[in-house]
Description:
26% of the residues lie in helices and 27% in strands. It contains 3 helices and 8 strands. The protein has helices at 11-28, 43-59, 109-121, and strands at residues 5-9, 35-40, 64-68, 97-105, 126-134, 146-150, 158-162, 171-175. Helix 1 packs across helix 2 (43-59). The chain is globular and about 50 Å long.
Amino acid sequence: MSDNDILVMNKKGVKLSIARIAYQIIEGAKDLDTLVLIGIRKGGVYLARRIAQEIKKIEGVEPKVGVLDITLYRDDLDSNKPIFHKTEIPFSIDKKRVVLVDDVLFTGRTVRAALDGLMAAGRPKSVSLAVLIDRGNREMPIQADYIGKVVFTCPEDHVEVVFEEEEAEDRVFITRKKVSDQ
Length: 182
């Protein structure tokens, strides 16, 4: 994080947002036994695992968590040898209530790609979307069902979510593009 970055959420804020999302998912669940969380690689995976742990703390039932790599389904895939990772969904999503999880919702293109990847993996009963940060500026008609925090940004801004699984402490910050950078 540099001096020009704006802190949006600290460790406590991330923890509270994850708890809020977990409670919202529980409130909307008719049956936790059919609930599965699918994290979009990479930040969505950390978030999905944390939400599942929070649901277990609250309800005593931990939803299954899968990992979805959307590289193959992106509409901006170029020929510069993209790096593919493994999709890991070691359970059936057929007739399950799937919560697709990502760290930041921006244009909606990542979620569109994730929906394509999810449908290639099975036929869920329903799909909803949970995100830690909704930053607006949509290019597609996609909205999150469960949101940690809404942060209004310019399209040129960069929102960075850092999880303790990668670095020392959870945090979310915005890097604003300087006028001289344009």
